[in-house]
Amino acid sequence: MYAENMLLKKNKLVFFIPTLSGGGAERVISELSLNLPAWVEQHIVLFENKISYSHKGKIISLGVNLSETKNLFFKLFEIIRRIYRFRKVVVSLNPDAVVSFLQANSINILVRLLLPTRKYKTVISERTAISKIDLIMNGLYGFVNRRVMKFIYRRADIVIAVSEHIKNELMRMFKVSPQRIRVVHNLVDAEKIKGLSQEIPGHPWFSQDIPIIVNMGRLSEQKNQTVLLKVFSEIHKERDCRLLIIGEGVLKDKLIKLSQQLDIGQDVSFLGYQNNPFAYVARSTVFCLSSSFEGFPNALVEAMAVGCPVVAFDCHSGPREILAPSMPPEEDFFGILKADYGMLIESGNVQALAEGIKIILNDKRLREEYCRAGRERVMDFSPVKTVDSYLEACGL
Predict the structure, then answer these.
(1) Which of 3, 68, 101, 321 could form a disulfide with 17 if both were Cys (CB 3.0 to 4.6 A apart)?
(2) Euclidean distance between CA atoms 16 and 60, whole angstroms
(3) Domain boundaries, the chain
């Protein structure tokens, strides 16, 4: 689509994100970076030099470490430092477009407002259901930040929403013009993931004939592994099965303690962060997404890419668009929905989640059907489609 640009000068694109380590947004930048055409000169600007994903292009660190403080005045000081240092980077690079993610979004737009004579596009990516922001940001800091976001988002040239649900919330809650919003689902390099999944995981459970439920994600309130442990405890009373939880997070110690209290500790394995989680997921019986909210859950699509049948809460947002793309977003259902590409569960219905997992565990034919259908669905999130959408949003 953009082959004619190869005959012209290179277009300069800046990705801007706090770190390139550990999360879904960071993995998306990694994949975008690796799949951009050669005629794009790319730079990745970070708050701090934390990198765990492969990439192309030059890394530039602002040298401003992330902190966990909720003190409004200290946060303001941090923001001013980031603005000052990122402004210097933009002036030096003179990019054609800046694409930002997460906490870098506000800095991206504020610097753009400070450089009114510079001609470059500002693109911000919104990855979380706007209606759930209160669950992430609370107190005085959260109150101020939500109002800053409302001011900022309407001043971006383009806002990329990772789901239709987020697009609708941006229009309703932040009054962003629909002409400024592009829905671009996260890319998933299915071939790369399938290749990585061929590695043999070094875990004794995979040499035994006992079904394994797997979950992959940050150990946090949002990802809701507490509910998953309780659900697993109920299933475990009826049949032999095991639970693998892949990821790190602030709730790890509490989750381990809960598994012991529920008397399932011997059949729950907390694997922590894994460089190659796909080898584990590919050999598991069912993947469960227990999140209370999402944006576009990469882990769900990655599980489908390696042929693992999936069960997911119909949380806001993403699972419905992935598993039941023809289903209207406003349509209600109760309990369990056997969707086209996986099992969709009424959000928050714990008993239905347990029943959905049991159905998958007990029905080999359904597992095979979802394995095949999931791999087909993943092709809709190919790198080529997503890269083209980002380049178009950037005007490149």
Answers:
(1) 101
(2) 9
(3) 3-183, 190-380
Please give the angle made by the CA atoms of 64, 66 and 67, to the nearest 5 degrees: 120
Q: Residue 238 corresponds to which tokens in the numbers above?
A: 């009826």
The 10s digit of each residue's pLDDT in 117-175 is 888 999 999 887 666 655 444 555 556 666 777 788 889 999 999 988 889 889 988 88
Burial, 5: exposed, middle or buried (Cβ in 10 Å; 0-12, 13-18, 19+)?
middle
SS3 245: strand
| Residue 21: predicted pLDDT | 86
Residue 93 near residue 43 (C-beta atoms within 8 A): yes
Same fold, 3-183 and 190-380: yes
pTM: 0.84
User: In the CATH hierarchy, which top-level class contains the domain 190-380?
Assistant: alpha beta
Interval 337-361: pLDDT, tens: 999 999 999 999 999 999 999 999 9
- The maximal CA–CA distance of the chain, rounded, in angstroms, is 67
Q: Is 208 exposed, middle or buried (0-12, 13-18, 19+ CB in 10 A)?
A: exposed
Neighbours of 44 (CB within 10 A): 22
Give CA–CA dist 268/230, Å, rounded.
12
In angstroms, rounded to a whole number, what is the distance separating the alpha carbons of residues 194 and 336?
29
Mean model confidence pLDDT for the chain: 90
Question: Inter-axis angle of helices 252-261 and 225-238, to 10 degrees?
Answer: 20
How many Å apart are CA 249 and CA 31, to the nearest integer? 23
Q: What CATH number was assigned to the domain covering residues 3-183?
A: 3.40.50.2000
Paired tokens of 211: 């079904």
Token couple for 188: 């998933």
Query: Residue 160 belongs to what H/E stretch?
Result: strand 158-161
Nearest Cα to Cα of residue 307 among 383, 372, 361, 246:
372
